[in-house]
């Protein structure tokens, strides 16, 4: 049974007569919300420390208390999403920001070739009402970047995996570590950030990317790139011939590109605490700006749909399967929330 901490659990702990709820998410509606109780917070903190093998400090407890208070306030308001307790719950803003490694740089973008633009609606066929590439075998399992700002590498590899499956009808997990270790000369900075387009260009020039099993990921533990690139061209499997940049800001064009081409690398704004603590539902925090200067996290767009009249995007994150909806987040579609359509691209494989 999947263990997780949810803000719903906190609500259960704060009832005047606490029920035994364990670690599983409560399925029943929250009723009779009581006032914030210190005893409930301490109990929740003890459970968090045990569940996430956290080494407690006074500062981390203060961070935890602050984040729980934000979730408590959010729970009281009508919303299409729920915030929950996860591995980030005891982190400060600066600690959390280390996981956000997308580095948008307009001055360097023009030097990436060959590239093409996906700007016009082709409409070769009617646009599907919903798309989910997970069900069509183009998405590998959720991965965990760990304590390394390598989200850009996971986003790029996810797009390469999808395009390779499209071309070869085989789903293969490829190496993020290769991109982290070997693409410094193309503008990326290992665990200190990078760009998906730089990664695609590197793979093209290098002659391909290895399987994950041949070049496994270690930077999530070491928190840095390896001292030397260990890429072996003889083990290269997927080869990139170019990349497609999708018209910035157009969600309609992005929907079409996704529906007819497969998973797409996108950059988003993941800075809001509400995103850090996202648990489930359709994320719709209006504070999540979508301009290019707000982009800080590389992810993989794998689908879109609608629930209870609310349109949404389906996004694969790289924070492990215990964050969000088994590692995924649904973001409200329609007004470029969090910048989903601001900087999107995919490789040609």
TrEMBL record:
It comes from the Eukaryota. GO terms for biological process: proteolysis. Residues 127-348 form the Peptidase C1A papain C-terminal domain. GO terms for molecular function: cysteine-type peptidase activity. Residues 1-16 form the signal peptide. The keyword Signal applies. Keywords: Disulfide bond, Hydrolase, Protease, Signal, Thiol protease, Zymogen. Belongs to the peptidase C1 family. This is Pept_C1 domain-containing protein. It comes from Mesocestoides corti (Flatworm).
């Amino acid at each position: 049974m999947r263990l997780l901490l949810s803000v719903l659990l906190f609500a259960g702990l704060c009832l005047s007569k606490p029920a035994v709820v364990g670690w599983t998410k409560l399925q029943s509606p929250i009723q009779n919300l009581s006032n914030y109780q210190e005893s409930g917070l301490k109990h929740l903190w003890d459970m968090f420390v045990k569940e996430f093998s956290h080494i407690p400090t006074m500062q981390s407890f203060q961070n935890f208390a602050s984040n729980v208070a934000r979730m408590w306030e959010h729970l009281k308001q009508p919303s299409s999403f729920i915030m929950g307790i996860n591995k980030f719950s005891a982190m400060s803003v600066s600690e959390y920001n280390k996981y956000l490694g997308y580095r948008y740089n307009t001055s360097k973008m023009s030097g990436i070739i060959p590239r093409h633009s996906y700007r016009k609606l082709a409409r070769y066929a009617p646009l599907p009402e919903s798309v989910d590439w997970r069900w069509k075998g183009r998405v590998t399992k959720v991965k965990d970047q760990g304590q390394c700002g390598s989200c850009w590498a996971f986003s790029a590899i996810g797009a390469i995996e999808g395009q390779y499956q499209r071309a070869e009808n085989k789903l293969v997990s490829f190496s993020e570590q290769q991109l982290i270790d070997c693409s410094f000369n193309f503008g990326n900075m290992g665990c200190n950030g990078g760009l998906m387009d730089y990664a695609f260009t590197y793979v093209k020039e290098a002659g391909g990317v290895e399987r994950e099993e041949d070049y496994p990921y270690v930077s999530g533990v070491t928190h840095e790139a390896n001292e030397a690139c260990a890429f072996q061209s003889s083990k290269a499997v997927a080869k990139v011939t170019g990349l497609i940049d999708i018209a910035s800001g157009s969600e309609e064009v992005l929907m079409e590109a996704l529906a007819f081409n497969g998973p797409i690398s996108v950059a988003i704004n993941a800075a809001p605490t509400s995103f850090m603590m996202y648990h489930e539902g359709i994320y719709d925090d209006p504070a999540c700006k979508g301009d290019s200067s707000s982009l800080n996290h590389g992810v993989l767009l794998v689908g879109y749909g609608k629930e209870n009249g609310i349109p949404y995007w389906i996004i694969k994150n790289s924070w492990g399967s215990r964050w969000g909806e088994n590692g995924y987040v649904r973001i409200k579609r329609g007004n470029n929330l969090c910048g989903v359509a601001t900087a999107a691209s995919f490789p040609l494989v």
